[in-house]
Amino acid sequence: RAISGKTEGLIRPMSELAAYDAQGPIPTRAELAYLRRGVREPGGKLPLFDRRGQEISAAIIQICLANGWAVHWFANPVKPDWLVCRLTQAGRDMVQHYWPVTDQED
User: Fold this and answer.
1) Whole-model pTM?
2) For 72, how many CA atoms within 13 A lie in the half-sphere containing its CB?
3) Cβ atoms of 26 and 32 closer than 8 Å
4) I need a labelling partner for 74 at 20 to 30 A (CA). Which of 44, 48, 66, 93 fits?
5) What is the pLDDT of residues 20-60, one digit of tens each?
6) What is the pLDDT of residues 58-89, one digit of tens each?
7) 3-class secondary structure for the chain?
8) Half-sphere exposure of residue 56: CA atoms within 13 angstroms, side-chain side
9) Cβ neighbours of residue 27 under 8 Å, at least 6 residues apart?
10) Which residues make beta-bridge pairs with 49?
């Protein structure tokens, strides 16, 4: 399954290893794009699918969970292996620092 709750053995390609600054890991563009989608959603709900209708990569979701930028929200009874997550305040702050969401965006 593309979106699962497993986090053991998560390995990122060398080209995508997170950089670090004084505050911790610096998110990749893909992680930021995923997290930005929760900024304007009720409760900070994060998407299961990207804007093209493709499932969000399990690696992206798991990295965001591991870094505290997202938290598991609730179990999906129809698809129990999917992670329904929401943005944390740390995730919201990180998005606003690296790729702010403006009032002009829809």
Assistant:
1) 0.76
2) 15
3) no
4) 93
5) 566 678 899 999 999 999 999 999 999 999 999 999 999 99
6) 999 999 999 999 999 988 888 888 889 999 99
7) CCCCCCCCCCCCCHHHCCEEECCEEECCHHHHHHHHCCCCCHHHECCCECCCCCECCHHHHHHHHHCCCEEEEEECCCCCCCEEEEECHHHHHHHHHHCCCCCCCC
8) 24
9) 18, 35, 64, 67, 69, 94, 98
10) 55
Place of tokens 């390995």: 11
Tokens of 80: 């129990």
What letter represents residue 34's amino acid?
A: Y
CA nearest 90: which of 75, 68, 71, 72?
A: 68
Structure tokens belonging to residue 2: 């593309």
**Residue type present at position 22:** A
Tokens of 65: 């969970």
What residue has token string 């600054």? 21
Q: What is the C-alpha to C-alpha distance for residues 71 and 98, in angstroms, rounded to an integer?
A: 20
